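Support case: manganese (II) ion complex. Customer-provided input:
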Amino acid sequence: MSKAQFSHQILTRTGETRTRLRSTHALIAPDGNVPTQLPGWSGCTSVILISPQMGARFCQYRISLAEGAASGPPLPGVERFVYVLTGTIALETRGAAGSGASHTLTANGYAWLPPDTAHTIGCTGEATITVVERRYLPVPGVAPPPAVVGNALDLAGEPFLGDENLTVRKLLPDEPAFDMAMNTMTFRPGTPLPFVETHFMEHGLVMLEGGGIYRLDEEWYPVTAGDVIWMGPYCPQWFAAVGREQAAYLLYKEANRDPFRFERES
Ligand code: UGY
Ligand code: MN
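Agent response - structure generated as follows:
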């Protein structure tokens, strides 16, 4: 019996799971994921991982696309961020007056789409993506920025708070028109976050590789690639990479908005 089969047997025969749901945070381990049908997404298996139903101010999905799959649109006024976990997707955007663009996104490729951008995501092989959606919070007098498309592997990154062992890659421009940040954080083995952070901004996190220990509020969790975490406002948070491999995660964070904006919009 392989190690994976053995772990699966333990989970199914003991009713055990690493998943935890608390008022300030959630750890969503893949073993408990249950797919659902999302409007308009065809040929896809979709799992809603983070949602307002658990207390979050945003949604995060994992979507597996089969050959010929196609996306559905976000709701009006909702911005969408897409990150390719595996495989390749085709993104077509359609602008005003018939203008449009086609992009092929491979693993670690990403796109941010402003609200009400007509687009489709298709797939000619198989792919898995994570999608973050939130009602865009406009700044009076500032138009939403145009779409952003890139690949995290093309970004050099910078040391996080001066730590050369911890690299942050900012996938979106750090400008007031953007109400969210999407970053990857890559930890050399043994590297911790420099302090226990506590902040107003929420996070949605996908472990991309490696693993370690995540402190969330008063609890410490072992985490590994494939896990998803929601950190609510002010949830004390800290991570250290454990093992001989580097650890990396993709991180959603609110940005550039006054807390009152969230009150009014919710
Ligand atoms: O920038 C951040 O908020 C980030 N360092 N938080 C985290 O990794 N949990
Ligand atoms: Mn943080």
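The mean pLDDT is 95.

Case will auto-close in a few days if no follow-up is received.
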